[in-house]
Write a structure and sequence with these properties.
Helix content is about 25%, strand content about 20%. The protein has helices at about 15-25, 45-50, and strands spanning about 5-10, 60, 65, 70-75.
Length: about 90
């Protein structure tokens, strides 16, 4: 849980991961954003988080994570290393 971090599910393939990061940088490049007039300098990190999302819904079947054969859960931090916390909510039986 951090305002400039994202969690997403996708294929664990190095080329695709690089493509995702380049895509996010293209859509939200390091630039001079209005947010920077408040004393911050991480406007691009906030926008990248919006692109990739901050939460995922993960299926669990018989007590095991039930993703496709190449799917993995990824965490992306766009504004350096900061303390984080994780919240896990279980819904259903």
């Amino acid at each position: 849980m951090h305002i400039t971090a994202a969690v997403y599910v996708n294929d664990e393939e190095s080329g695709l991961i690089e493509d995702i990061m380049q895509w996010a940088e293209k859509l939200a490049p390091v630039s001079n954003y209005h947010h920077h007039h408040t004393g911050e300098s991480n406007g691009d990190a906030h926008l990248k988080r919006l692109l990739l999302g901050h939460q995922v819904l993960l299926p669990i079947t018989n007590g095991h994570l039930d993703l496709g054969p190449w799917e993995r859960v990824f965490y992306a931090e766009f504004d350096g290393q900061r303390k984080k916390r994780v919240i896990v909510k279980v819904v259903g039986e």
